[in-house]
């Protein structure tokens, strides 16, 4: 019972932290997703001069642990006289990581569209841009939404890394409360519950909206969509990966 | 128009020494072919003969590695503009239909007239409905391709190509993905199209279609034209041993 009473004391502060966590998630996605789509288009471009830099950026973004990127932005860039608030640093770092991971998800979605559809577009005289906008992307979006939602949930949990650069998000609040009361079990359990509640709600929402089913493929389309490869961020645990 | 009486002044489509290569592996060697306006040419031959590659080279889905393609007197080059002009005038129907599954039949047919030709949507819709009526699928206008049978899908694909009002229609084994019954309805549509005077180049394994509907049959093997003649003559009285072997094998199946 005592834990419930403590939670009552912590909750208002934690909810303030949750707001910061959600803001950080939102800003990271707002910046990261369009960039990810851009990188995916660049990675599938015909010209190597466009393809290679994009691929390099994505590999760096996925190869570097998010915490390293975060430290780089927070501690490294000021040495080049680029100084931002800790929130901005966290948002920039997480947006970069987001763009790298989602670029690969988008790329997999784009390459899941049968080559024949692109050939049909060419045979109909559609420009490359129209082929993407009217035929490839509308189909690819349907393929990538489930893995994207999965990534958003991981990013939401990953924002706890911003604790390391003292953004007052959910985990920071839990830690500072604990450092006053020494009730680590109670505070961290509550933080975990708050993270978990939002994540599970998001998963439930996704399942309701996009129930699992085999993608509809017309008789002519020969290749089933290629499953997105290596979409798990470095902070994802094995059990989470298995669940997905 | 029959082959026997075709003193063509200028062919609608002319291939001159066309080669097609994938990387450095050449699959079509030095093919020359002329197609008159209104003529139906069937390309037959064993798999791997280069029929589809040749057809795809005509509208530059597989740009020819050598040779010239002349459409209605204008040589098709690699430039964007000449390619655009070519694709407006050459319709293509694929073995796998390649309809866009996220769009309805009508939207599939309207897409290119609106976005390639720049026709106002209302007008394009009318044109698309005409073409769907033409292939007997007006009642399927608002259905997505996934809900249609294979034969219906291929007819929608034909309507989609026709909506561009092309001068030439290319068919790449249009019935190979269909069972014989559904294939028959597609062949009937193509037969009607031929009767209306559409210029057609058809890669096919349907020997009856080649014999009955085509004016001229071209037999290809190993990337070359082995023999070509008026449809009836080639099918009944092939001259080249390779053609005889192929036709015997097909007939005695």
TrEMBL record, chain A:
GO CC annotation: what is one?
ATP-binding cassette (ABC) transporter complex
CDD domains assigned: TM_PBP2
Family membership: Belongs to the binding-protein-dependent transport system permease family.
What name has this protein been given in UniProt? ABC transporter permease protein
Classification via NCBIfam families: HEQRo_perm_3TM
Cite the PANTHER family for this sequence: L-CYSTINE TRANSPORT SYSTEM PERMEASE PROTEIN TCYL, MEMBRANE COMPONENT OF AMINO ACID ABC TRANSPORTER
Q: Which GO terms describe its molecular function?
A: transmembrane transporter activity
The record's subcellular locations are:
Cell membrane
Chief subcellular location equals: membrane
Name the residues that span the membrane. 20-42, 54-77, 83-103, 143-164, 184-205
Say which species the protein is native to.
Answer: Nocardioides simplex (Arthrobacter simplex)
Cite the entry's keywords alphabetically.
Answer: Amino-acid transport, Cell membrane, Membrane, Transmembrane, Transmembrane helix, Transport
Q: Which GO terms describe its biological process?
A: amino acid transport
By its UniProt entry, which SUPFAM superfamilies does this protein fall under?
MetI-like
Q: Which Pfam families match?
A: BPD_transp_1
> InterPro entries, per this entry?
AA_ABC_transptr_permease_3TM (IPR010065), ArtM/GltK/GlnP/TcyL/YhdX-like (IPR043429), MetI-like (IPR000515), MetI-like_sf (IPR035906)
Q: How does it sit in the membrane?
A: Multi-pass membrane protein
TrEMBL record, chain B:
Task: Tell me the Pfam families matching this sequence.
Answer: ABC_tran
Family from the record: Belongs to the ABC transporter superfamily.
Alphabetically, the GO molecular function entries are: ATP binding; ATP hydrolysis activity; ATPase-coupled polar amino acid-transporter activity
Please state what the protein is called. ABC-type polar-amino-acid transporter
Source organism per UniProt: Nocardioides simplex
Domain of life, per lineage = Bacteria
The reaction(s) catalysed by this protein are:
a polar amino acid(out) + ATP + H2O = a polar amino acid(in) + ADP + phosphate + H(+)
Q: What SUPFAM superfamilies does UniProt report for this protein, alphabetically?
A: P-loop containing nucleoside triphosphate hydrolases (SSF52540)
Q: Which GO terms describe its cellular component?
A: plasma membrane
